Amino acid sequence: MTTFVRNAWYVAAWSTEVDDELRRFTILGDHVVMFRTSDGKVAALEDRCPHRLLPLSKGKRIGDTVQCGYHGLTFDCTGACVRVPGQTNLPKSAYVEAFPIEERHGIVWIWMGDPEKADRDKVFDMPEFSDPNWALHHGDALHLKSNYLNVAENLVDPAHVSFVHPTTLGNAASENVPVHVRTDGDAIVAWRWIRDAEPIGFFKNFGGFDGNVDRWHYYYLYTPCTAVIDFGSVETEKKCAEEDRDQGVRIFALHFMTPVTETYTIDRWMHLRNTATDDAEAPAQMDAMFRKAFDEDKEILEAVQEEENRPQKRRPIRIAIDKGPLVYRKRINDLLELERTEDLAADPSPAFVYHD
Question: Which residues are in the Rieske domain (predicted)?
Answer without folding.
Answer: 9-110
